[in-house]
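Lab notebook page, bench 4
Experiment: in silico fold of construct C2
Operator: M.H.
Input chain length: 394 residues
Purpose: comparison with the prior construct
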Amino acid sequence: MSYNYANATATLDHLLHDTSNNSAATGFDFIEELIRAADCFDTNHLHVAHVILERLNQRLRSPAGAKPLQRAAFYFKEALQGLLSGSNRTPRFSSLVEIVHCVRTFKAFSGISPIPMFSIFTTNQALLEAFHGSSFMHVLDFDIGLGIQYASLMKEIAEKADSLKHGSPLLRITAVVPEEYAVESKLIRENLSQFAHELRIRVQVEFVPLCNFETLSFKAVKFVDGEKTAVLLSPAIFRRLGSAGSTAAFLADVRRVSPSVVVFVDGEGWTEAAAAASFRRGVVSSLEFYSMMLESLDASMVAGGEWVRRIEMLLLRPKILAAVEGAGRRVPPWREAFYGAGMRPVQLSQFADFQAECLLAKVQIRGFHVAKRQAELVLFWHERAMVATSAWRC
């Protein structure tokens, strides 16, 4: 099956042009090869994909010192090879030391790029507006990561309770996590409990193994009368569900919980990738997204590339592995699924807009801008959405 590269997208054209001052064809060749390899997954010519990827090993030996598109292509080549060999599972941390390294890397990412903080403050603002001064709150999180994002939410809750002269508020966090999340779970619970003690608020953190949730759905989650509940979603849960029927059933169950708000954060370019009609198109869409992500990361770094390397390896590479693994799954457009479940979007407040503008003014990196898109608040790098946050009511 042929691939008309020139018609693929203006985004990849832009990145190809930037890849080499001497010859655009230098970038053109390895991208075409990578796309041909992805095409082989659609046609089930996996032996051909293997040959192409082996050839790419000679072209893309290392991401070190390369341009954004070349680095992204290296990680996607790795992910496709892992898919062929069956070794494409997202790597898990085996020790607290590894997790601490990842936490430090996330903090560095937050310090040099507006992308992580945009995700955090838009989510927090949607939660705070939905909880509206309540002192009994429950967040059901389907993509907790390392839980770092909760520190700022807890601080906001503590400050609001203090200003209103309320008693010590209670924040319950229930995270649905993979079965092998024991090391991360221990650290998250300890860190958040310690921080809550310092803030003089109460926090309870519970973890529900994903296998239990898949069997019991929301019966696996403890709900308490009188609490205001919020549900946090990301592309990860929809990749896991993997079909229109499973997605519809899941969202119907979400609605039965009657949360005050459902917050969806797309920080993976999933809106475009999930709409792709084939594995190849899904890979191309994700390749575009992460190429632009790496380009924005390079623009964010004033000096030194060591943190960029760590951010790529510890934070972005696992997401690329997951994106490639899920590229062949056909799921309905998420907005359509939300509407189909009877949910309706809620406009994020003007204060969220103000925070976004303050964030961009602080980092002062040309190329980032914020705009609204169908009730979403979106952080763009040039014309590509990097993070899109939306709030929904049932």
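Observations: The chain has two domains: 5-91+279-325, 113-271+330-393. Residues 1-11, 15-26 have pLDDT under 50 and may be disordered.
Next step: discuss at group meeting.
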